[in-house]
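User: I'm writing a tutorial on reading structure tokens. Could you give me a worked example: one chain, its sequence, then its tokens, then a sentence or two explaining what the tokens reveal?
Assistant: Sure. Here is the example chain.
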Amino acid sequence: MARACRLDCVHFATCDGCTHETNLDAPPASARAARFFHDGTVDGKKHAPWTLQTPKTHGWRCRARLVATRDDDGRVELGLYRRGTHDVVDIPECRAHHPRLNEAAALLRRLMQGLRVSVHDEDRKAGKLRYVQLAVWTSDTSLPKHQRYDQGRVQVTLVWHAKSYEAMAPTERKELHRLCAYIWREGRPGQDKTVQELIHSVWVNFNAADTNVVLGPKWKRMEGPSWMWERLGGAEVCFHPGSFSQANLTAFDLALKAIQNQVPKGARVAEFYAGVGAIGVSLAASRNCAVDMIEVNAHVREPFNQTKARLPPETRDRLHMNIVSAEEMPERFLANADVVVVDPPRKGLDPGLMSALNSDKSKKVQKIIYLSCGYDALERDVLQLLEEGDWDVAHAEAFNFFPGTDSIETLVVLQRKATKPPTPKKSKQNKSKKKAKRKNRATGTTAASET
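And here are its predicted structure tokens:
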């Protein structure tokens, strides 16, 4: 077995982040999907050969959320909860992480230990730093193209146990400012050009709720740029640290290109569960599509407006972001759409959208492009679309977004069934001629014999 398809991670025995140590390029979920789509389980037809693209098996994760804690000896740990518990497993050498994430986490451990930062203790309900979110910037145009992924800088978000910056006591603010200043200074080597900069920016998120929700509603930028820009599907897309972003940017870029290949040039597109609009923006830029994007999270509006401002006017005018639930009157977006793109959360399509896709109000839609991170929900939704609507599976493939786990990202294209032209009505004159011919055959006469 090729060594590249083994995880070879020192944390595998204790960390629940990865569930498979071997065959990283062939997760069992892919074989299940192949049986369902390629072998005909879904509709009794054999489709094109099933493909699973795996661009990276290690160092693929460009975004991570780590729990902050101290061990019994007081050492700072940044890691993941062991499944079913609140025991934290420190993962300084994670093989799934982009190496720059591990570098940034090592810097944070060292600084928090040296500065004696107040780390949250769930049992005692005390301490301030709860989580750390790290995201690698892989599209830094100041670097040569071949170095942009490997040497990307890291956006750091500290999740602080407080309602807001304004609600913090002066001594607590001082502690927070000191930590952020050290992260910024230590992560940027200044005049030493032989050392690659590590830190892109430093943010603080405020979350005082005692729940499992990681991020709170309040944010403050402490150091560095306001936005992180990634080139995805041939377009520049803006992200806020609170925006949803795929963790595997290399695989996501491949999925975007596959979606582009399925959309006719100049098509009108309705994109549901749009996030900051990466799919819609790439279609407007590469396929000259007019795109209505539907997203329930109002926080995407500002980064979307930043993205839109960088586009040429003719592309910009074809993009519209609608802050509304996918279930809230989806028919108004389907009525004029040629193509529908859906990229829902793991639970799959909302019932209201499913109903609308199978109704007469979506008759103009000729194609549904479904990108799914939740395979069970995808199977359920595809079967329902085939059973209740006028759809056929036209294409299916997968992308290995999460090597080391049994999860895949699946792309399915459903095409509207071709409608048969109505049978022309027979005129009375034609009926009379056919009746006369049948009578002549029965009597053995012809027009020639009668003369």
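What the tokens reveal: Residues 20 and 404 are 5 Å apart (CA to CA). DSSP finds twelve helices and 17 strands in the chain.
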